[in-house]
Amino acid sequence: MNNPIYSYICQPVGIGTKVIQLPLYRPLNTKELSKDLVLYLRGQGYRVYSTYSPNIIVLQVHAVGIRSHYYTIKICQSSNFILIESGITNGRVELERAGLNTGLGITDEFLHSSLFALFSGALAGVDVASVLGSYEEENKILSGVQQIILYYENQGFQYSCPHCGMRVERTWKYCPHCGRALNFK
After folding, report:
1. Which residues span the domain enclosing 183?
2. Domain check: are 134 and 176 in the same one?
3. Where is the Zinc-ribbon domain positioned along the sequence (predicted)?
4. pLDDT tens digits for 168-177?
5. Region class of 45: left (phi > 0), else alpha (psi between -120 and 50), else beta
6. Are residues 183 and 164 part of one domain?
7. Which residue(s) pair with 50 in the sheet?
């Protein structure tokens, strides 16, 4: 995953002002993570729509009380980090018009480019005064999403490299960070 395309797709698209960057220790399965995030958020009482490609997940979360606005969250994985970007948008309708409401066959480049085009100036037409009270709820949603991503990424890691301390799996022969041989018994 270390090429210019991944550097390009893991750039913020201008959804909003909140951007979180987390370290990535192993690749995420976006299809499974997307399902887990949808189940979690629906369990919290939100209506959730998800779109994913091999390295990007877009969640559109609708909460009661914010009219037709959605919390839109883009999650992207690169070679060594996860980027989470969120904002309050009218994006759900626009994504449907773009035909992006299913993850079947969507490439990372197409999804990123479509999001960039759709969300450039995402708050245009949004009554900012009507969503000011919604930022606290957005933080709550983001916190839950972040916890699930960290939990999802940490599954299977119970060992660490004795040389550099990076979390590794027991079956690995070499540390992907420092290259040292690993020998767990």
Report:
1. 158-185
2. no
3. 161-182
4. 777 788 887 7
5. left
6. yes
7. 59
